[in-house]
Amino acid sequence: MRSHGFPQLRTITRNIEKILVGRAAAALSTAEVTTSVTIVPLPLWSELKPQIDVGIKAQKNANLVLPARIEWSLPPLLLLRAGESVTAEWRITNMGHNLAGSLTVTEAGLSEPVPGQLDTEILFAFSPRDLKRKLAAIAKTGDTAKWEILQSFEEYTRSKLDEANRILAQELSEYHGQSIPGVLDDIALDSLLTQMLFGEGDTSIVSRMVDKALQPDAFKDFDPARYFTLNLKSRALGEVRRTVGDPHIGSKIRRLQKIIGAQNVETLVSAYNEQYPTANLGPKRAAAALTVGAALDVTSVHLVTDEELREYSGRRSAGGNS
């Protein structure tokens, strides 16, 4: 029976591979190349049955395979002349695997496949000039791949921002006893989305996540998709909190205040630090957590009930028929 993976995972991993190979291409020196050479990229991914708990994925797919990163003792892009060969050691320590081996790389590729490897494309450069052109194209493809990863998470990131907006609004509504449908409007959410995805230069949250994903051990405990989705969900809520001035521990501060009924900030701070000795909570953060909802009165509205909505609709219909 054929093993089943997830196409979107392969897209992510292939783009990570393009970034790594592209950077290797940009770093290669061609000064000593005077003849034709073969450009041999080493495979950076295998698709194997996971040896760790991956939750519902495995339950729904008995023959599930997921990406596992291949680490090499050599750079991921090699230049080999006719008849030339090199020895390369490899290992796979992601997704619960502990595999290793050694093989020979020639202009024709690997002497034997790495288990589950995703194949790569070998290129031939006819001359030093042709080599420079092809290496430049590989490097450019790597740059494009990073943008493709960023853009591929645009819809998901927006959905997590919307979700975070609702979660925090509901939390503050319950705490302040008033209805807050959202702590940020659509314009503010769009601005946050742009900042998270693209930022200024290379400083965006998702861009930094991609850079971390290039590390060989990035997916030791999670498959690539889960690595991104879990991080994006957490960071989206953190960014919404930051934007409205709510400390990242704001929920815990408000929860404790309701439990003990603290009448002043000093009492709350003392109780919080006693319960969480390493928190080192100060009056400023405590006050910010308690007052963040009060600054959102502009977005507070009375929730319309179903009965009121029906009455309103009836009045509009009656007016339209007269």
Number of domains as seen in the coordinates: 2
Q: Output the helix-strand order.
A: HEEHEEEEEEEHHHHHHHHH
Helix amount:
40-55%
Give the strand line-up of the largest sheet: 4-6-7-8
Give the assembly state of these chains. single chain
Give the structural class. Answer: alpha+beta
Q: Any low-confidence stretches, pLDDT <50, length ≥5? A: 1-5, 297-322
Shape by Cα distribution? elongated
Mean pLDDT, to the nearest integer, reads: 85
Radius of gyration: 27 Å
Biggest beta sheet attributes: 4 strands, antiparallel
- Classify the beta-strand content into a percent band: 5-15%
The total count of helices amounts to: 11
The end-to-end span amounts to 69 Å
The number of E-state strands comes to 9
Short description:
It is built from eleven helices and nine strands.
Characterization of this structure:
The protein has two domains: 7-144, no CATH class; 153-313, no CATH class. The protein has eleven helices and nine strands. The protein has helices spanning 7-27, 56-60, 128-152, 154-176, 186-197, 205-213, 224-244, 250-260, 265-275, 283-291, 306-321, and strands at 37-41, 45-48, 66-69, 71-72, 77-80, 85-92, 99-106, 109-110, 123-125. The strands form three sheets. It has a four-stranded antiparallel β-sheet with strand order 4-6-7-8, with no helix packed on it. Strands 5-1-9 form a three-stranded antiparallel β-sheet. The longest helix has 25 residues, at 128-152.
How are the elements arranged and paired?
Blueprint: H1 7-27, E1 37-41, E2 45-48, H2 56-60, E3 66-69, E4 71-72, E5 77-80, E6 85-92, E7 99-106, E8 109-110, E9 123-125, H3 128-152, H4 154-176, H5 186-197, H6 205-213, H7 224-244, H8 250-260, H9 265-275, H10 283-291, H11 306-321
Antiparallel strand pairs: 1-5, 1-9, 2-3, 4-6, 6-7, 7-8
Helix pairs in contact: 1-3, 4-5, 4-7, 6-7, 8-10
